[in-house]
Each structure stands twice: as structure tokens, then as C-alpha cells.
Write a structure and sequence with these properties.
With 1454 residues, the protein is of the alpha+beta class. Helices cover 48% and strands 8% of the residues. A 5-stranded mixed beta sheet has the order 2-1-5-3-4, with helices on one face. A 5-stranded antiparallel beta sheet has the order 11-12-15-14-23, sandwiched between helices. A 4-stranded antiparallel beta sheet has the order 6-7-8-9, covered by helices on one side. A hairpin with a 2-residue loop joins strand 8 and strand 9.
């Protein structure tokens, strides 16, 4: 969810199906097949139907991307069904015989390569020590890179023999590396150091191993007595303590390796390497030196035949074999003979390794860094040492030859065929693999550049101008070299340009036009410097830039050239990217045609490919941050204080905003055409009937505009967020609202009754930023008193037109405009037919309708809706020809409208989504993402916060405001930290880095510590060495005094933060130090520490920090362990898998659970095919699958899938990422359902701890978490503890949902139940009465919830009366009273689970046999109705429900 890698699929701007669309029954991509539905209850269509449905979704999106200029997809339709079936092709089993082991069976799939079997064998416990072998079938060696299906004679039951092969130097090195990896397989230090794509995971600490077995293993789960439910003190509601240490609990496996579990003391390359010539001729490849646990020092030769002991010692070289030499093909076999401890410990180690969940050890596609780490002992490690010095170029990734030609790899993968599904999968997999490898290499190179490890290609120039080449990647620093950006903002512009360029690369990459190439681009921020890493265009280094650029401009538009081929290629991207083809003047005043911004340069490489680079102005400028003399912005912008001067002139609008704006305009276009058509129709009728003036056209119109309430912005935000477009969010929506096309009519009734009153607070439990709302127009309730006020347009046609011009936007309410405007379908038809033909067959009047609508919305075409932007408007130095003045004026207006749209529509819509709890950011990253999904740049953060501040419902947005303030402060601190580090040292001048940790700890002290006098205390020994060095150091030219950093004081830093907030975000902070911030804005220091560490790449020692001590600073230099790079890169997508995932979601939303499940499973296969096993999107897939398994009653499968989702979220997003917290909550629910109560509690406590650390206790999501904890504790009869959590949940719900909300009623009910169990009937009655009152007022007396509550009140009253009688009896008669036994009810697990399901948004709807009969008839009727095009809304269900059978439904209500 972090904004680093967010990505928008430009080629399919509108492929998401959102819940509201579904509700209207108009989903073009999922035509239901007409197969008779034999078993509608279980949705049991045959598999082939599912395949067709999936395919259907696929054609639709393919078509859509085709018309948008995306990929060439001819002939997809015919082959698609077969392909999907091919992909589902079942695997078969082969037998494998390895030397010295029993043959075993292995399940393989025909698409696998032989190499993948190699990988499996290198991971298996009994064969993991072999690396140099071939697989043979009937004596024939199999080619490593052949697919299994292409191998003759390989079939079910074939025997594959593992045959040892002779070693080469390369194979011997790979073997040693592999053995080292096996020895370190449980060691977390690689994850802490952020190398080799290792990352942390702590789930197993809380589940005691794998949950799958624990169901069988621990039968005691149901014995309540044995569960220790007491949470740690710091987790209890109201605790102010926020410890850091529990963030990384100790894993018992790690304790094992740290101590007696050592296999070897030292394994390293011998100093005798490389072997002399005469020994090479004996087959010596290299020498190793080892010290065993028994303190035996040995020297080993790696030869072509294997490994043996030689007679060398540290000081004498004697390569002859020792006696005995123990010649073995594998190092492990050799060591097992020499060292008994090795043999014993290695076996235990491998057993432990294999028992861990595979997801704990698979590498992630991109490196995830941890901001905290314990002090890890530094051990001797030959492989690590060698990596550091050889940079692994020799045998990187097992590729022959020296370095990788990154450009060639990146471009050839793009050129792979993509005509059918298998081809596309292969292509996407190759693209993804090369991208993740390139990102890793670029990150390593950038760090090497900043660490001063790479020689510049222009060493004579000053540091900031230097450029570097390493490993075939070109590196440049983010400074304004040669005053290139002088007019645009100097260094500030040079710092912003790389990220703009990366966004451009991302956008063009997503459109994916054949024949147009972009550079591999990665932007790395490390130690205060920004490095751009790019792949190198072949031949560009040999010639001058002036010669090579044949399209675009190298001097910001003074000289401009164009090229036919480039225009043709870019024209294909112009529609999806909304770029207008336009003319500019060159230095000779000739008109030159371009289809991009002038900065975009076209260069044909020596390989003949057409490259485009410098895409920093792909998207149009943001006029709110670009004051232009003589230009007046629209009133909405001016009201908010725009235009404002920004640091640089490269501020541009986000792609998401452009999409939302165009969609908003499209709705307006359709409405205007519809209104005009209605007028024409009315005119005609009046003429035909020759009636009196009563029937004038106005009579038909005036009411219309006021009935429209499309929320383009809400819709577009759903479009961009509902599913995985952005890799980090995922909205797994499984809500079925009352109007969905579900096959359960009974469900419809039950949901309407359940959901209608509750729609306003549908519990979106899946993720905080999911913006898909389940509320349809029919369900919106009158209780929504907190709608954000925005401009609505009422009245006849003219005001609509003016509103459009001003870029205003109607009030964000849900529901689609289509229902409310009668002529809309007609208008749609007209627009489509006009676009399809040349318009000759259409009567002039209709054509005029479209022309008027086009003009009004600023379309560039007069016959169809087509909005595009000219990215060169307002670019300094760009001149336009005389004849395009009108067009330029239009474009300027469009830009002003877009800027106004952001301020007047997108920001209110974001705030409204937060009020409705459709967007629930928890930390800076999820907040940034919520902004970005709606196209709001982070530079608007100050405006968003001001908007919240002025909102009447500010109290209900407190959490959002707090997270916003925290983000603003930490971003300002990051800006200051960057310059702080830059002043401290510079690359290449060799200014000593010895003070870096002291400087970082000093900065953190000034930022967070309450210690007023945070003077940098340089440790004594350093001062000594400084004195010694003083004479020598002063001779260094330009060395200077680099202790300027030490003079920073807390008050100075906070002054800088306040002024930075004012100048950058136009926001006034009222605080002079950290303590005031905590007090005034309710922030937590630990949260600020986490945010600044993640943003600046600081890794600190995990221990308890005393921020509030006024006697000593919180941080010392020993606490700063490392500085990590912060990396931004492109995130290639798996498009086919993505479409399957969406189709699956849509099916689920329509109520076809089983088919949805099959489609999602299919998506999972495809995702795995492209991304490998670990990826954010796979995580989303697994979560949805787990939820479906749970709903369909397969609790065990739900547990297994959710466990994978949690592990993956920890590994790919981070152990305390908001998504991970959500995953923990879901897993706890499934654990509870599986009877693993203590595990469920541990998981909930973990989630609560993480949430306290990430955002504190005061957050709407905490109410859900506490309700879960309270219910589980109630179930295990810990009533007092349970009450603490439930009462806290009640308080939070009242605060964020309003005291009259149905969520609050449910909270009251849960509290009442616990009081009842404690026999405190008075308190129980009090709470239940509150709940009853809310139900009565909100949904009326007749509603079943009100009735249930009323029944429960009666029951409580009876119990209270009975108790009182008994007490009176005791008072009256003393000990000889005859006491009636009272009924104290311990809650049953089933009732607790039922309540858990309800609060987590899952409702099971009971159905009887009779209902099932009705249901079948109903489904058939619906299908017929759908075919005849009738509205879904008219359908109702007859017959009452009887409680027998149950159909599960997933409805997000409380």
C-alpha cells in the first residue's frame, strides 16, 4: 500500500466493477451464461461455464484496452476458452531417484521447466545438499530449460534419475554459496540487513508453528481452563505505555541457531586461491578453509570430482589429498564424515528449516527493509565478504558472461509474443522477473555510488555533476547540473524531475504500445542524496545528444524536432494517456507537430529501437501550484488561496486525477445530450399534438438536473481503488447489497432489512483504504447527517453548463446518474453511433445535440466525447502557432477546470469517504495512498487538513486529522534531514563518515526527545582521534569542519519544521517542540519515530527509548544501526490474472459464491505464474479466497489461506503495515471458528499492539478490534477483561459513528450480554435499553432488530426481577430461605461466533426447503427478465422465511 510502487493501469481505465454498478444489473463484462441452474443454492454451474465467464471478462477488458490503443489483441476471442482450460491442465506425478535415498513421488505440471525440479530437489531435506547434478530419463540428460510437456516419453509415473555431474569453478562456487545459505537458513540477520530479498515474519511466534497441524495436534484448544487470556499490560485499553521491543518477539528457531546449534565455526575461502597452474591440471578448482565445532582446522580442495581434505595449513601449501581424503561429491557429505557435531546439528537444522512455512523463507520480489533491529552478532561469512568485493558480477543469477545487458533484457521481454493467454503469461513473467532483478541491481549500484565505491565517468567535475556507470546501469545525482533546470526551480526541480519521469515511464509502460520503448528507471533516496538509475540506450554514450535526438527538444522547446514514426507510435498512446496532438514553433518559427510534451525526447538506439526518455511532463501542469501572469484561476481554486508558488515549476496533475476528471466530464456530457434530446422529444410531441402551452418543453425539464447525483469522483475513486490496481490496496469486497444480481431472492429480502438501515456505516473490514461502498441509492438512509457540503446544481440546462465550465462537481452521493435521467440511454446510443459512423445517417438535429454537449465539456472532437490535454501549455519557452490560439485557450480553460475539480470535488470526496468509513487510513503510507487514489498530490496535504478542520463533523475525522498532521510533520522533518545529511558529508571528497551515526542520533534527539539541551555528545575516544587527526585533516582541501551538524538544537529544528510546513504545505503548525505536538495534536512519539525512520531509511536498535526524560537524550549513536535506501520503481502488472480476479469479485458480489471462488482460484494460479509465490496482489487474492472459504463453511481451508495471506503481508509489506494488522484480525476470526481460542486471542492482542504503535488507540478500526477481543474473552468467561475492551469499543464507535448509529446499538448489546453473564442485570438493562432506543428511532418498531432487542429486554427484566426476589427472600428468612436456582448463562461458542461474524460483516441467512424452491423459480425469472431488459428493482420475494437450512451471505453491515 505504500505509495512508492503504486501503479495505475492506464490501458484499462474503467475495468473495475463497483458494487453500485452491479446493483443496477448492468455489468457488461459478466454476461451470465444461460445454462439452467441446477443447484442455485450452491451456485453449482459446471466448470466450463466458469471458464466462459472468466473468458467473458477477459474479452471485455481486452477490447477496452484495444480501443484505448493498448496491446494488439487480434484473434483473442477464439482461443481464449481453450487457453483457460489449458492453464487448468492437471499435473502428473513422476518418481525421482537420488543417490543414497529412496525414490519419492513428485507432483509436477506440464508448464514447469526441468530447472524447477532442480530447485525443488535443492530445497528438499534429503537432497538439499546437492547442486551439481543432471536429471536423466532412460539415460538421456534433460535440458534444464525445456518445459516438461515438450519432453518425449515423460509421463505419469516416469522415473527421473539424479546423476552427479563433474564440477566447474562456477558450479563449485554455486555449491559453496548454497551450503552457506542452508547453514544460515534460520538466521534472520539477512532480513535485518535487508539483503537478498529476505524479510521478517513473526506469525509463527504467535501460532506456535503451522496452524494447519495445530488443529489436529492441540485438542486442548477447547478446554477453557488452560487458556491464559491475560493480555500484557501495555495492550489494555487506556494504557499509555507504547513499548517498542514487542514489535519483534523472539523466535525460538533463532535462539536455536544463535547458541548450541552451530554446525561450523568458520567456512571461508582459503588464502591459497586461486590454484597454481600445475594444480589446475590436476583438477583443483579452489580451496576452502574451515574450523569445525570441535576446533579442528581443515583445508579442503574443491576439484572437478568433488571435495576432499588436503594437507595445507595456514602457512604451508600442500595440496596433496590427506589420508583419508574423504572425497565426496557434496561438501555436506564430506563434513558429516569429519565432524560429528556438524552431522547432528545439520540434520536438526534442515528438519527445522523444512518445518517452517515456505512463505517464511521464499525471497520477496522487491527488498523490504525493517526500521528496527536487534543487535546481531557479526560472524565470519565468506560469501558475504566475496559479494562485497566482487559485487557478484561473475555469476550473478547464474547467467553466463560477465555483466547483464539490462537494456537488452528489459526490451526483449517487452517484445515477446502476446497473442494468447500462455504467451501473455510467459511475457508478463519475464517482464516482472527482469524488473525486480533490475530494481535490486540499481539499488545496489546507487548505494555503491553514494558510498563512494564507483568511479565517475567524468571524475574531473565537481561532485554534484558527476555521473556513473556500474553493471551496465547509468547513475546520475538529483542536482541541477549545468543550470539545466534553472528556470524551473533549480535543485528543487532536479529533485522532483526523476519521480515525475518515473511516473511517465510507468504510464507508458502500462499502455504497452508495441514498438515504443522506455528505459528501465529506478529512483533511490539514500543518505540524503537522490540517485536516478537508468538502463543505457545502445550507442548513446558514443554520440552527442544533439545528434541523437530526432524527436522533441533538448533545450525545453527552443529547438524542436519531430519524426513521423514517433508521431505514429505516440498517437497510439495519446488516447489512454489523454495527450493531445499539437503543434509548436521551433527556433525558425516553423510549426512542428508533437504528440507529447517538448521535453519528451525520441532517440533511435543502435539496436534500431525507438526509445522515449525524459517523460517528466507526461501529465499536464497543476495550475494551482503554477502562478502564471495574466491568468485567472477558477473561483473554487481562488477561494482556497491558489495559485501558490511552489518550490519548482514541475508540479503536475496525477494520472488518477486526469482519469477521474475525464469520467466526471463524460457523465456531464451524457446528461447534457440526454436533456437536449428530451427537449427535442417534448418539442416534437407538442407539435404533433398541437397542444396548449402547458406542455412546453420546460415542463419536462426543470426537475431533472436536481435529480442527478452522479458522483464522478466517488465513482472514479472506486474505479481506481476497488481492486488491485495499485498493488498496495486491495478492496476485496464481498458485500451483497439488496439490489445485487444474486441468485438468492431470500437473501435480497434479508439483506434489505439488515442492510438498509445500516448502509451508512457498512463495516468495511477488509482494508482501511478500500473505497468501494456498498450503499446504493435505494439504501441511503435519512440518518446521514454528516454529508460534506458541496455544490449541487439545480435548475434547468443553463446552470449545468456553467457549472461545468467552472469545474464544479455535484454533491458526492452514491448511486448512478443513469437511473435518474430518462433520455440517457438514447444519448448513449446516439454518441456511440456518431463515433462509429461518419455521422451521415444521423439527422442534423441529433448531431447538433452532440456538438453542443461536446463544446460544453471541452471535448477536442465535435462528433464524440474525447478530452485530451496539451502538456506543453504554460511551459516556459514553448511557443504555439498563430492558428491554434482558440485551441490553446480551450486547453488553458480545461487545465483550470481540472485544477478546480481537484480542490472542489476530489478533496471533499476523500473527506466524505473518511466520514463514511470507506477510506480508513491508519498511517502515513495508507494516507498517501488514499490521496493518490483520488488523484490528490501530497503537496495538497495542508489543504486537505484545513478542509477537515472546517468540516462540521470534525470530531468524527479526528483520526484522519491526526494522521495527516503526523504525515505533514514527518515529511517536513525528512526534507530537513536530507539537507542536514548533505551538509554533513559529500561523496568522493572523503570527508569522514565516522560521525554519521552520531549525527543521525542527534537529529532524532532534536526531533523527538524532551531533553531540552540536546547537544551532540561526541564520545571521548572520537574526540581523541579528532585531535590526532587535526593536523593531517586540515591539509585536505575542501575538507572543512564537518561538525556543523552538531550545532542543531531542538528549538531550531522545530522552528525549521514549522516554517517548512508553512512554505511547502501552506499549513500553520502551532508547536515549538515535540512535547507540544504530542499535547496539541494527540500524536505519539513512537509513531513519529516509525514514520521518520521509514521515510528517511533509518534503522534503529530495538529497545525501550525514554523520550520524555528531561535529563538525558533518548538516542545515542549506538542506537543507529544502519541507513537504508528508499526505492521507487515501476511495478509491472499481471493483467490477465487481474481481470480474472475482478470477474471473481463481481461474481461474488452478485452472490454466485462458488463460481466467484473458482475464478479467484484461477486468478491465484495466474498471479503465481507471473509473480512467483510472493506478491501483494497474491496476498489480496488469498484473503478473498479465505473469506469465501469461510462463508462457504470450509473453515479449515479458510484458515490455511488466511495464514498464507498474513505471512505474505508481513514479508511483502512489513510486519506492522496496516494491511498486516487487518490480516491478523481475519486470521483470528478463522482460528476462533476452528476452536483455537488461545491462538485467536494471541493474534488479536498482536494486532492491537501493532495498531497502538502505528496509529494509537483513538481510531475507528480499534473499535472493531476491541469488539473482537471482547467477544472472544466473553466466550472464555473472562468477563471483567471482556468489559474493558467492549466498553472501549462502545466509546470509540459513539465518537466516530455518532451516538445514534446502529454500530453503537450493537456495541450496547454486546456490553449488555457480558453484564448479563456477570448477573449484573441493572447495567445490562441500561445498555440494552440504549440499544433498543437507537433501533426504534432508526429502523422503526416493526424491524426484526428492534423486536429482538425488545425480547432481550423482557428476558433481562425477568432475570432481574427473579434475582431481586431471591435477594429479598434471603434478607427476610436468612440462611433457611428456599432459593430458586437462577439461570446464569455462560455464552455458547456458537453464539459468540455468530456475534463475531456480524461485527466482521458476515451474515448467514437462514433458508428453508420451501424457500429454496421459491429461489429456483426466482432465479429463472430473473434471468428471463434480464434478457428482456427489465429493471431488477421491481423484483420482490414472496413467502416468509423459515429457519431450517442456512445460506451464508457476506454483507458488510454490523
Amino acid at each position: 500500500m505504500v505509495s512508492k510502487t503504486d501503479d495505475i493501469q492506464a490501458s484499462v481505465p474503467n475495468c473495475n466493477v463497483n458494487t453500485v454498478d452491479l446493483a443496477e444489473g448492468e455489468t457488461p463484462d459478466h454476461q451470465e451464461t444461460k445454462a439452467p441452474n441446477k443447484d442455485p443454492c450452491a451456485c453449482g454451474h459446471s466448470a466450463s461455464t466458469v471458464v466462459m465467464n472468466g473468458g467473458g471478462a477477459h474479452y471485455h477488458s481486452e477490447e477496452e484496452s484495444k480501443q484505448d490503443g493498448g496491446g494488439d489483441t487480434d484473434g483473442v476471442e477464439d482461443s481464449n476458452e481453450q487457453e483457460v482450460i489449458v492453464i487448468q491442465d492437471t499435473g502428473f506425478t513422476v518418481k525421482i531417484q537420488a543417490p543414497g535415498t529412496e525414490p519419492f513421488d513428485l507432483q509436477v505440471s506440464p508448464q514447469e521447466m526441468v530447472q524447477e525440479i532442480h530447485q525443488v530437489l535443492m530445497d528438499r531435506e534429503d537432497t538439499c545438499h546437492r547442486t551439481c547434478f543432471s536429471l536423466q530419463l532412460d539415460g538421456n540428460v534433460l535440458d534444464n530449460f525445456a518445459e516438461l510437456k515438450s519432453i518425449e516419453g515423460l509421463q505419469e509415473g516416469s522415473l527421473l534419475k539424479v546423476v552427479e555431474e563433474p564440477y566447474t569453478v562456477r558450479e563449485a562456487r554455486i555449491h559453496v554459496r548454497h551450503i552457506r545459505d542452508l547453514l544460515k537458513s534460520l538466521d534472520p540477520s539477512d532480513a535485518y540487513n535487508g539483503v537478498d530479498c529476505n524479510s521478517l515474519s513473526f506469525l509463527s511466534v504467535f501460532t506456535d508453528g503451522d496452524l494447519g497441524d495445530s488443529g489436529k495436534r492441540k485438542k486442548k484448544g477447547s478446554d477453557l481452563e488452560q487458556i491464559d487470556c491475560t493480555p500484557p499490560e501495555h495492550i489494555l485499553p487506556g494504557s499509555k505505555e507504547r513499548p517498542l521491543v514487542p514489535l519483534q518477539p523472539q523466535n525460538k528457531d533463532w535462539k536455536v541457531i544463535m547458541t548450541p546449534m552451530q554446525c561450523l565455526k568458520v567456512l571461508t575461502m582459503s588464502g591459497w586461491n586461486p590454484p597454481p597452474g600445475n594444480r589446475k591440471m590436476h583438477g583443483d578448482l579452489m580451496y576452502l578453509y574451515m574450523v569445525t565445532v570441535e576446533e579442528r582446522h581443515i583445508s579442503i580442495t574443491a576439484s572437478t570430482r568433488g571435495f576432499y581434505l588436503n594437507q595445507s595449513t595456514t602457512y604451508t601449501f600442500n595440496p596433496k589429498p590427506a589420508n583419508p581424503s574423504f572425497l565426496s561429491h557434496s561438501l555436506v557429505e564430506l563434513l558429516s564424515q569429519i565432524s560429528p557435531a556438524f552431522k547432528k546439528n545439520f540434520t536438526v537444522l534442515q528438519k527445522t528449516r523444512v518445518q517452517r512455512h515456505p512463505f517464511e523463507r521464499i525471497a520477496t520480489p522487491f527488498q523490504v527493509y525493517s526500521w528496527t533491529a536487534p543487535q546481531v552478532d557479526h560472524t565470519m561469512d565468506c560469501v558475504r565478504a566475496e559479494d562485497a568485493y566482487t559485487s557478484r558480477l561473475g555469476y550473478e543469477e547464474h547467467i553466463p558472461g560477465q555483466t547483464r545487458d539490462w537494456n537488452e533484457e528489459l526490451q526483449t521481454t517487452r517484445e515477446l509474443a502476446r497473442k494468447n493467454l500462455p504467451e501473455r503469461l510467459l511475457r508478463e513473467r519475464a517482464i516482472f522477473k527482469v524488473h525486480s532483478d533490475f530494481a535490486a541491481a540499481a539499488t545496489r549500484g546507487s548505494m555503491a555510488v553514494i558510498d563512494g565505491n564507483v568511479m565517475a565517468i567524468n571524475p574531473g567535475e565537481e561532485t554534484r555533476m558527476q555521473m556513473f556507470i556500474w553493471n551496465n546501469i547509468f547513475f546520475s545525482l538529483g542536482f541541477d547540473v549545468r543550470d539545466h533546470y534553472r528556470e524551473l526551480g533549480g535543485d528543487a526541480a532536479a529533485h522532483a524531475a526523476p519521480t515525475n519521469d518515473l511516473n511517465g515511464v510507468r504510464a507508458y509502460g502500462a499502455v504497452d504500445v508495441e514498438g515504443l520503448y522506455t528505459l528501465g528507471t529506478v529512483v533511490v533516496d539514500y543518505r540524503g542524496y537522490r540517485v536516478t538509475a537508468q538502463s543505457i540506450i545502445p550507442g548513446i554514450l558514443e554520440r552527442e545528444q544533439e545528434q541523437s535526438v530526432i524527436y522533441g527538444s533538448i533545450d525545453f522547446g527552443k529547438t524542436v524536432v519531430s519524426h513521423g514514426k514517433y508521431l505514429e507510435l505516440l498517437e497510439r498512446t495519446s488516447r489512454p494517456l489523454k495527450v493531445q496532438r499539437h503543434n509548436v514553433l521551433n527556433e525558425k518559427d516553423e510549426s512542428v507537430e508533437l504528440c507529447s510534451s517538448v521535453e519528451c525526447k525520441g532517440i533511435i538506439g543502435n539496436d534500431g529501437r525507438h526509445y522515449i526518455l525524459d517523460l517528466l511532463r507526461t501529465f499536464p501542469p497543476d495550475l494551482n501550484f503554477l502562478p502564471v501572469e495574466g491568468e485567472e484561476l477558477s473561483p473554487e481554486s481562488v477561494r482556497q488561496g491558489f495559485p501558490r508558488q511552489h518550490r519548482h515549476r514541475l508540479a503536475c496533475l496525477r494520472q488518477e486525477l486526469i482519469e477521474a476528471f475525464v469520467e466526471h466530464r463524460y457523465l456531464l456530457f451524457m446528461k447534457m445530450a440526454a436533456l437536449q434530446l428530451m427537449q427535442q422529444k417534448a418539442n416534437k410531441e407538442s407539435k404533433m399534438a398541437t397542444l396548449t402551452e402547458n406542455n412546453s418543453p420546460e415542463a419536462a425539464v426543470p426537475a431533472l438536473p436536481s435529480t442527478e447525483n452522479p458522483d464522478a469522483s466517488a465513482k472514479s475513486s472506486e474505479t481506481s481503488t476497488e481492486t488491485l490496481t495499485d498493488g498496495k490496496s486491495d478492496a476485496v469486497q464481498i458485500e451483497t447489497t439488496s439490489t445485487t444480481d444474486a441468485p438468492q431472492p431470500a437473501a435480497t429480502e434479508a439483506t434489505t432489512t439488515e442492510a438498509a438501515p445500516k448502509a451508512e456505516q457498512s463495516t468495511e473490514t477488509d482494508i482501511p483504504s478500500a473505497a468501494a461502498t456498498t450503499m446504493t441509492a435505494s439504501q441511503a438512509t435519512p440518518t446521514e447527517d454528516n454529508v460534506v457540503p458541496t455544490v449541487t446544481t439545480n435548475g434547468p440546462l443553463v446552470p449545468v453548463a456553467t457549472a461545468i465550465q467552472n469545474g464544479e462537481c455535484e454533491s458526492p452521493l452514491e448511486g448512478k446518474a443513469e437511473d435518474s435521467i430518462p433520455g440517457l440511454a438514447q444519448a448513449k446510443e446516439l454518441a456511440e453511433s456518431l463515433a462509429a459512423e461518419d455521422g451521415s445517417g444521423i439527422d442534423p438535429k441529433s448531431r447538433e445535440v452532440v456538438l453542443n454537449a461536446c463544446k460544453a465539456v471541452g471535448s477536442i472532437s465535435n462528433t464524440s466525447f474525447d478530452i485530451r490535454f496539451n502538456p506543453d501549455i504554460f511551459s516556459p519557452g514553448v511557443r504555439f502557432p498563430e492558428d491554434s490560439v482558440d485551441d490553446i485557450q480551450k486547453q488553458k480553460q480545461l487545465l483550470k477546470d481540472a485544477a478546480a475539480f481537484l480542490v472542489s470535488c476530489q478533496i471533499p470526496s476523500l473527506v466524505k469517504d473518511c466520514l463514511d468509513h470507506n477510506a480508513l487510513p491508519m498511517d502515513g503510507a495508507t494516507l498517501t495512498e488514499a490521496l493518490h487514489q483520488r488523484g490528490i498530490n501530497v503537496r495538497y496535504l495542508g489543504n486537505v487538513l484545513e478542509f477537515v478542520d472546517k468540516t462540521p463533523a470534525k470530531a468524527q475525522l479526528e483520526h484522519f486529522y491526526r494522521i495527516g498532521i503526523s504525515e505533514l510533520i514527518t515529511r517536513c522533518a525528512k526534507h530537513i534531514f536530507k539537507t542536514y545529511l548533505q551538509t554533513m558529508y559529500s561523496i568522493s571528497q572523503g570527508v569522514e563518515l565516522s560521525a554519521l551515526s552520531a549525527a543521525v542520533s542527534h537529529f532524532l534527539n532534536c526531533f523527538l526527545s524532551s531533553f531540552p539541551d540536546a547537544v551532540a555528545h561526541l564520545p571521548a575516544d572520537e574526540l581523541v582521534s579528532r585531535r590526532k587527526n587535526r593536523k593531517r585533516r586540515n591539509r585536505v582541501p575542501g575538507g572543512g569542519d564537518n561538525t556543523a551538524w552538531a550545532s542543531l538544537t531542538p528549538s531550531e529544528l522545530w522552528k525549521n519544521i514549522v516554517s517548512e510546513a508553512q512554505s511547502y504545505y501552506n499549513f500553520t503548525l502551532h508547536c515549538e517542540n515535540a512535547d507540544q505536538v504530542v499535547e496539541k495534536y494527540g500524536l505519539q512519539k513512537i509513531t513519529l519515530l516509525r514514520e521518520i525512520s521509514i521515510k528517511a531509511g533509518i534503522q534503529i536498535l530495538i529497545k525501550e527509548y525514554n523520550f520524555d526524560s528531561r535529563h538525558k537524550p533518548a538516542f545515542t549513536e549506538e542506537d543507529i544501526l544502519n541507513i537504508f535506501p528508499v526505492v521507487k520503481h515501476v511495478n509491472p502488472k499481471a493483467s490477465d490474472a487481474f481481470h480474472f480476479f475482478q470477474s471473481g469479485q463481481a461474481k461474488v458480489q452478485q452472490g454466485y459464491l462458488k463460481e466467484g471462488c473458482e475464478l479467484i482460484n484461477e486468478a491465484l494460479n495466474l498471479f503465481n505464474n507471473v509473480y512467483g509465490a510472493m506478491h501483494v496482489e497474491i496476498c489480496a487474492c488469498l484473503r478473498l479466497l479465505a473469506r469465501l472459504n469461510y462463508i462457504m463453511g470450509d473453515h479449515h481451508e479458510a484458515l490455511s489461506n488466511q495464514q498464507k495471506a498474513v505471512l505474505m503481508s508481513e514479508r511483502v509489506l512489513g510486519v506492522e503495515h496496516p494491511n498486516t494488522i487487518q490480516e491478523y484480525m481475519h486470521l483470528a476470526l478463522y482460528c476462533f471458528a476452528n476452536g483455537q481460542l488461545s491462538t485467536a486471542l494471541k493474534l488479536l492482542y498482536r494486532a492491537r499492539y501493532l495498531m497502538l504503535m502505528v496509529c494509537g488507540e483513538d481510531h475507528p478500526e480499534m473499535a472493531l478490534l476491541d469488539s473482537n477481543i471482547g467477544l472472544v474473552l466473553h466466550g472464555v468467561m473472562e468477563y471483567d477483561l471482556s468489559l474493558r475492551f467492549l466498553e472501549n469499543a462502545l466509546a470509540i464507535n459513539s465518537k466516530y459513528h455518532g451516538p445514534r448509529s446502529l454500530k453503537v446499538a450493537l456495541s450496547h448489546h454486546l456490553v449488555a450480554r457480558v453484564y448479563e453473564s456477570k448477573a449484573e442485570f441493572r447495567s445490562a438493562l441500561q445498555h440494552e435499553k440504549e440499544g433498543y432506543t437507537i433501533y426504534k428511532n432508526q429502523v422503526g418498531e416493526a424491524h426484526e432488530k428492534t423486536k429482538e432487542s425488545s425480547e432481550y429486554l423482557k428476558y433481562l427484566t425477568q432475570q432481574a426481577v427473579a434475582l431481586q426476589r431471591t435477594m429479598n427472600e434471603i434478607y427476610k428468612n436468612g440462611s433457611n430461605a428456599s432459593i430458586m436456582p437462577l439461570k446464569f448463562t455462560a455464552p455458547s461458542m456458537a453464539s459468540v461466533l455468530e456475534q463475531l461474524n456480524i461485527i466482521n460483516g458476515i451474515i448467514f441467512i437462514p433458508l428453508s426447503q420451501k424457500d429454496l424452491e421459491n429461489l429456483k423459480a426466482e432465479v429463472q425469472r430473473r434471468q428471463q427478465l434480464q434478457e428482456s431488459g427489465k429493471s431488477m428493482e421491481e423484483l420482490t420475494v414472496d413467502g416468509p422465511l423459515e429457519l431450517e437450512d442456512k445460506i451464508p451471505m457476506d454483507v458488510n453491515v454490523d
